[in-house]
UniProtKB/TrEMBL annotation:
Gene Ontology molecular function: any one: cytoskeletal motor activity
Protein name: Myosin N-terminal SH3-like domain-containing protein
Domain Myosin N-terminal SH3-like: 33-92
GO cellular component terms listed in the entry, alphabetical order: myosin complex
Similarity field: Belongs to the TRAFAC class myosin-kinesin ATPase superfamily. Myosin family.
Length: 93
């Protein structure tokens, strides 16, 4: 570690700009499954981690890091139908 890096990390405002090296290492070593883990909007923190528990049609149920169960409507299915219809229309031209 260079002297310049250590001087920045000693600044009292640094904790609000970046995590410590130990916190970053701990976060990066946690397993992340893109089919199961996601981020959901949160009024207090912006986004929080969540885990997908079930999907039925366009509805996705997740459990947040705080333990709250939340249901979302996933609009990706409609987007795919729309894109497929555009491609079909372009082939007809």
């Amino acid at each position: 570690m260079s002297k310049l890096e250590s001087d920045h990390e000693k600044d009292p405002g640094w904790q609000y700009l970046r995590q410590t090296r130990e916190q970053m290492a701990a976060e990066q070593s946690r397993p992340f499954d893109s089919k199961k883990n996601c981020w959901i909007p949160d009024a207090e923190e912006g986004y929080i981690a969540a885990e997908i528990t079930s999907t039925k049609g366009d509805n996705v149920t997740v459990v947040s890091a705080r333990g709250n169960e939340v249901c979302f409507h996933d609009g990706r299915g409609m987007v795919l139908v729309f894109l497929e219809s555009i491609c079909l229309n372009m082939e007809c031209c």
